[in-house]
Structure formats: C-alpha cells, structure tokens
Amino acid sequence: AQTVTQSQPEMSVQEAETVTLSCTYDTSESNYYLFWYKQPPSRQMILVIRQEAYKQQNATENRFSVNFQKAAKSFSLKISDSQLGDTAMYFCAFMKHGGTNAGKSTFGDGTTLTVKP
Amino acid sequence: DTGVSQNPRHKITKRGQNVTFRCDPISEHNRLYWYRQTLGQGPEFLTYFQNEAQLEKSRLLSDRFSAERPKGSFSTLEIQRTEQGDSAMYLCASSLWFTQGTYEQYFGPGTRLTVT
C-alpha cells in the first residue's frame, strides 16, 4: 500500500514571495504519477501540477514547479510570486498508473497555505 | 465539457435516515471514483467503477453504503441508517482509463453531508 506524508500542516507566505510545500511518499511501484491539488476554502479541488515517475525532468506550470527526487521519494511544490488567490489547502497525491488497481489516488493530509498581503 | 457535477451540494439529515448522492462524470470518462473527506484531512478512497462495473471497495465502505453506476454513466452513492460519523464531504472524480494506464482525476465540487 502507498502512503503520502505532508509534514507541514500550515504555512504562510507574503504576497510575491516564494514558498515550498513538502511531500514524501512510500511505494514499491515503479509506474506512477504524483500530483499536487489545490482546494480553496469551500471550493472544488483542482489539479495544480502532475509529474510522471518515469520522467527525470521536473514538471512546471507557470508559477508552480516541483522538485521530484525519485530515489528519496520526495515531491515538493514550489510556488513563485505568490498571489492572494493561492490561499488554499494543498494536497499531494500518489496514483499508480498501470496494472491492477491503477487509477485510485492516495492523498496526504494537506498543507494549509495562507498568502498574506 | 461541463466537468464533474454532484448533487445535492449540501445534505442535512437526521441519524437513521437514508441519503443518496448523485455524480455525473465528464462524459467521455470511463472511470468514476468516490472519496470521503473529513475536515482537515485528505480524501480517502471509497470505491471506483470502470464503466458500470464496480472494481474495488474500500474497507471504509461498510454494509450501509452502496454505490451504483448503471449504464456506465452517472453514479449514485447511498448511505442507509446514517450515523453521525458519516458526516463528511463526499467527493466524486472521473478519469480516462486505457490499457496502458490511467491519467489524472477530475473532481466534482462534493456533497457535504451533516448527520444530526
């Protein structure tokens, strides 16, 4: 079974600054995806960024980038030029990509990020 | 493409009553998932369907819970004889599955259940 750990329950950052959210995971699988999801207060969960485990290059999406360290089973999210709209709970998630039971996700307990003006 | 929709968005019920939630996935998605999320926690997997077949159920899904996906389109999640511990956000997600694997899930807005 997979586990996902987010060790920072809460974080805050000043607007326009950079913040990094940590995530570690444990798995014996080799074919998997990792995700960061954003869940604003009382709003829908949306995908922020995706990383395929077979890719060595770290994924980037505009102001969001990841540091994927496969051997260390670490997957951190960096948010650059933080904006007030980035205030949300952020979840790290693991998903087996192929084979039996592929598709369901295992989530961490989340990090609540507050961007301060 | 209107995304994943869920109804109702909020449900308040008394302990012992039955409730049913509905999820409409993205139309071309063949997989549909149900998760439960309690306050301050990440979503926990409950069950999933590939087309109309229910392929896996979590141990979290007691006998009081049942899910269906007739004709491989929308899905319903029913909770019988609700208990206060059932109070949570119930999330639905859908994805495309190919023989090579599956890709990211798209989540609905959730149904928040409060059992009094």
Topology:
The complex is a heterodimer of chains A (117) and B (116).
Chain A: E1 3-5, E2 10-14, E3 19-21, E4 24-26, E5 32-39, E6 46-52, E7 60-61, E8 64-69, E9 74-79, E10 88-96, E11 105-107, E12 111-116
Parallel strand pairs in A: 2-12
Antiparallel strand pairs in A: 1-4, 3-9, 5-6, 5-10, 7-8, 8-9, 10-11, 10-12
Chain B: E1 5-7, E2 10-13, E3 19-24, E4 31-37, E5 44-50, E6 53-57, E7 65-68, E8 75-79, E9 88-95, E10 97-98, E11 101-102, E12 106-107, E13 111-115
Task: Name the features.
heterodimer; A: 117 residues; mainly beta; four-stranded antiparallel β-sheet; 12 strands; 52% strand; B: 116 residues; seven-stranded mixed β-sheet; 0% helix
Could you explain the architecture of this structure?
The complex is a heterodimer of chains A (117) and B (116). Chain A is an all-beta fold. Chain A has no helices and twelve strands. In chain A, the strands form three sheets. In chain A, strands 2, 5, 6, 10, 11 and 12 form a six-stranded mixed sheet that branches. Chain A starts with a strand and ends with a strand. The mean pLDDT of chain A is 93. In chain B, strands 2, 4, 5, 6, 9, 12 and 13 form a seven-stranded mixed sheet that branches. A four-stranded antiparallel sheet of chain B has the order 1-3-8-7, with no helix packed on it. In chain B, strands 10-11 form a two-stranded antiparallel sheet. By secondary structure, chain B is mostly beta strands. Chain B starts with a strand and ends with a strand. In chain B, a hairpin with a 6-residue loop joins strand 4 and strand 5. Helices cover 0% and strands 52% of the residues of chain B. Chain B has no helices and 13 strands. Chain B is globular. The mean pLDDT of chain B is 92. Chains A and B meet through strand 5, strand 6, strand 10 and strand 11 of A and strand 5, strand 9, strand 11 and strand 12 of B.
